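Subject: Interface between my chains keeps coming out wrong

I've been trying for a while to get a sensible model of this assembly. When I model each chain on its own everything looks fine, but I need the whole thing in one frame so I can look at the contacts. Pasting all components below, labels as-is. Any help appreciated, I'm running out of ideas.
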Amino acid sequence: MDLSNKKLRELFDKQEQQVPDFLDWSKMESGIRDKMVAIEAMNGTSKKNLWLNRFLFLAIGFLLALPLTCMQKTDGDGSDELVTRQSYLDSSASRINLKSSKEAQSINSEAIQSDNEIELHVVDQITNKTGNNNTIENKFKNTVRSENATNTPLGCVFNENHIEKAIDVQHAEPIKSITSVPSIDSRLLGLLFTANTKVLPNLGSILQEKEQSGSNHALAVFVSPGTWNTGWNDSDYFDSSLEQELWSLSFGSEYRKSFHMNWYWSAGLNYQLSESRLDWNNLKEDYLITLQDTIVGFEMNNFSQELTPIYGDTTLMTTAERNVIHYNKTTMLQLPIGIGYQKSWGKLNANLTVGATMALWKKHTGKTVSQDLLVDYADKPIYNNQMTWSGFTDLGLSYSLSDKFSIGTSLQIQKGIGNWAYPTDLKVRPTWYNSKFVIIYNL
Amino acid sequence: MVDQNTILALKHGDQSAYAVLYKKSIAYVYTVVRQFVEQDYAHQDIIQDIYARVFLNIQKYDEQKGPFKPWIRRIAINQCFDFIRKNNRKTTLIPIEQIPDTPDEEIIEFTGINDKDILKAVDDMPKGYKNVFLLIMVEGYDHQEVSQIMEISEEASRSQLSRAKGWLRKRLNYRTKQTKVNGFK
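Reply #2:
Try treating it as a single job with all components included. I did that and got this:
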């Protein structure tokens, strides 16, 4: 530390100016206490939101894991379904024949039962109206718990839910429509295990069920252009009329899981980009310009008459007009979860989804006008930095191109829940209106 | 400035000590705020912020680590620059790059100049480099700290300090020279 710095420090440290009246404790006390409350509230809100967000993360994680768990369970049941599908595949064909030609189909099954294992020998014999016979022979080995077997006059009946494992010992000829035949009624399944019993199932309800079920899981990718509304009110800090919303674009993916008849859950990830334009004109009558280090005068040597320039700062008063056009961007990463209902008419499918979207991350870049000053959003944030929610409704139509692929379109409205604003007197509840174009893949 | 009993009372949650601390320190705090923020309308708000933070954080003040005065001064300076950052107005300046920078290490001699003139000269210093000058020469920050507080580059901090010193030197020398000229006449 040099001496001059020390001198300066001492000078400034002992300097105390006269305090103006407006800084009297009586006039300041309430303001200071208000600020203390505001600071504590902000700190408290941050901590509260931290825990709330952790809870929401866990809840959403659970919701996302649930369909996956269900999917795995269904896959397990799928091996059970294989037994019935193959057994009934030609039965469904025979039903069609039965309607037109009164021909019959018989399924003879023979079960060899040990303690907890059944080996099943099924012979399907189908006779169509042209007199051709078609015989399919299947062998299945099933493991059941003996306590779940019930002795009936017809034989031993097992509940479908208790079949832990079914092994297809010898495949029938693969047939294309095999996957589309739904699971068999558990009572019929039980009968299948009855030795030397003829079964003629009522497949009407099964075929009806087939029409309604389709695939249980679907993955969709989408892009949705649209428009939006910033949803601000005017406040002491911001003038919403200066900013005009332009467009929004979102894209992402979505997973759907049917859980009952026509109902489904959906969850996904969505990246949303929105743009607005700021138009601001500002006229300053008394605009002060400082010119640094200009010649402000001359010093004259009275003997030599030589002039030495004196440098200093000069200020000029002028009028300035400032026209500002700025394009502002709002980007968000959202996690939507919803519940929906769908209805099919042939290849056409209509669906309605309602749900909530959590904004995991938000970024707002650009400039706005606050108290007649052009400021950066980084300094005067509009959106708070917490996870915020919005509700959405999505009404869509899709068309099946094949068993696996569908294309569709939908209209979506999304509106912010609560106040998304940084803690000021501003209220922000943005709304998005998007038209969605989607490609759906049935898993 | 503020006695230990007042600090202890505050630490024990005695809210009546708020007024005592405020009255004993406001002149000092106001002086600091005025040095950095020129806008009179903002002083009340900034000072409310300063004291709100002082009262809320009084538990963190450790008298073993140093006196109260520098502690409150630092809070005051932080709040001033918080205000400056949020209200960063782009003043229109015409830079003259050709001006030879005064070396950073140069010591300004204040010998023969009275304190009042020095304070007046610093107070009159153009805003563009006054804050850098105060932070480094008076508060003892280094260029890296200044660059973080003022959100400018270290190079800009050095440049502004050089200009501030140059300006101050000219100003003080000029006054001396004028006196001499007048004396000759």
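Reply #3:
Confirming on my end. The radius of gyration of chain A is 38 Å.
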